[in-house]
What does this fold into?
Amino acid sequence: MLLFVVVVACIALLSHAFDASSSPGLNVRSFGAKGDGRTDDTAAFVKALAAAARSQKRLYVPAGVYPVRRLRLPDGVSLKGASSRTTWVRGGMTFGSRQHIFDLKIGDAGSSAVRNVAGATGTVFERCHFRGGGGAWPNEAVLAIGQKASCSNLLFKDCEVERNLGVEDSTFGRCYNNISVYAQASTVRDITFEGCHVGVSNGQGGHDTGSPRMGIECWVQNGSPGWQNITLRGCVFEATDGTCLDFADGSDATMAANGVLVEGCTLKGAGVLASAPWSNIIAVECPSGVVITGNTIYRSYQPVISMSHLHASGPGVVITGNTFDLVAANGVTPYGYDPFNLMGYDNVFTGNTVTCNYGSGIVDLNGAHNNTVTGNTFVVGAAYGHAAIREYNGSSGNTVTPNTVD
It folds into this structure.
């Protein structure tokens, strides 16, 4: 966990450095941008960004709506709007390295709001509002990180991510996630989301919060170097149609992916559409070094935490100090699966409070070995009538006491 702290601290210092070094700035209106919501302002932005790169000055974007084709931000250029409520760059951005982009609304339907160039590093998005998704690859997700382009040391701080504007088909195979972190023939490492709100309304009416597929999907293509160190701290995820958080290693058992910290977040639900083939709050499939701590988590259609694609030697997942409210109405009707499916070796489930009124058990140790399930409080009510912990399918060596069952 020390590694996560060091990474976040370094990125925070980097963001302050951008603020100090990029003033006074240039104004995009001085290069012909109209911001009237009708004029294509792409050419004006290209000129302004080139001037900012030459002068090493920050580019200011006043209040307005600026329709643009996808912009490529030069390395080292910072971009500031009046606020994410009043300044809308209505088109996609492709970012690079050593950039600070803040106080902007970015993106529109049919395209990823932002994606990175190969080698992007040290870039910060702060107080931004992201809109988009629904296009063909690589424009499926609202935020598209990786996707055959390596990147590292990226921070998204106090940002909002709208519900993806795409509509999934019956197989849920279009990858219309709010956030995709894909290591496809690339290395993706040290990606931090801090204080972000994911799945906010896209203003379409009806079911316009959450995600048509996943809130965030971290995935490794077989043979890829993988992703390392994904941090979600103090974030809120609205209830998703499919899975809320998915952390997947490759199925070739290389254990290329590692390092997950989910800390102090609120996860409002998963499986709003019961037809979704994946509808867990957190799916661990199955990178190493996963820590889930201090979160408030609501119910899902399928198990709240599910593990699969296990490697022969583990890995262990640490789930500690969380509050699981699986009774409160959140728009999701659980199918009746037991909430926690812990498989594999050396998992730790301790110090959690679980309020639950469904399932034939709460924590399943399904072929699990040397797991620790202790110090938890299970609030089940007098009518529950089932054991809180179930061991089966050859489980062995697990420690399952003491716990409190109310």
Notes: DSSP finds two helices and 38 strands in the chain. The chain has one domain: 2-24+60-337.
